[in-house]
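A reminder before we start the practical. When you read a complex entry, don't treat the lines as separate problems. The point of joint prediction is that each chain is placed relative to the others, so the output describes one connected object in space. Small molecules and nucleic acid strands, if listed, are placed in the same frame. In the example below there are two entries. Take a minute to note the order of the lines before looking further.
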Amino acid sequence: DTGVSQNPRHKITKRGQNVTFRCDPISEHNRLYWYRQTLGQGPEFLTYFQNEAQLEKSRLLSDRFSAERPKGSFSTLEIQRTEQGDSAMYLCASSSTVFKGYDANTGELFFGEGSRLTVL
Amino acid sequence: AQRVTQPEKLLSVFKGAPVELKCNYSYSGSPELFWYVQYSRQRLQLLLRHISRESIKGFTADLNKGETSFHLKKPFAQEEDSAMYYCAFQGGSEKLVFGKGTKLTVNP
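Here is the predicted structure of the whole assembly.
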C-alpha cells in the first residue's frame, strides 16, 4: 500500500466548469476526510466519511461542493460551476478507528499529496 | 468557537539553538491536541499527539490547560527540522481543526 492517493494532482479549469477529484485511502481505513488549503493557511476541514456515511460537513461548504464515498472505499469531491475563489490545494486524509481489533481512534490522519486546483 | 492560534508565521533559529513553536487553542472542554509537520515536497504527517506524552525527533509538547497552550519544543534544533509545523485540535467532533502553521527555518 502506497498510502493515500489523490488524482489528478493538478487541474486547471475555466470559471464555470465542473471538476472532480478522487481519493483512494489506505485500504483498511474506515474514515476519510477532505480538507482545503490555500496559500498561507492551514488545512480547512470540508467533510468526512465513516465508511460510506458522510457524518459531518463544514458549514462553510457551498452547495456547489459535493462529496461521495459510495462503497466505503474511494471518495470523490466534485465542485460545480467553479469560481476563482475555489483555487486551492484539496487534501484527502484517511484514518482508522480500529487498531488490532479494538476501538482505538488515535486521531492520526494520513494525508495524500493533494490535488491542486487553479480556476482561471 | 473552536480555534487554534499559531502566532508566529515564520521562525528562524540557528542549528543547536533551542526552538519553541507556540500554539494556543480555545475550547471549553477536554481537547486532544496534535502537531503535524510538512517537510519540503512531502505530505503532511503527524509529529506527535499530547495523549502519547512521547518525544519524537527530540520534540516534546505539553498540554497546559490553564494557559490553553500546546507549545512544541526542542532543546537543540537541527537543519533537518526545517519545515512547516501545524498545531491541530480535536474537541467535540471527529474533525481536526488546524492552525495556520509556522514555517521553521534552522540555519547552519
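Discuss with your neighbour: Chain B is about 0% helix and 45% strand. What might explain this?
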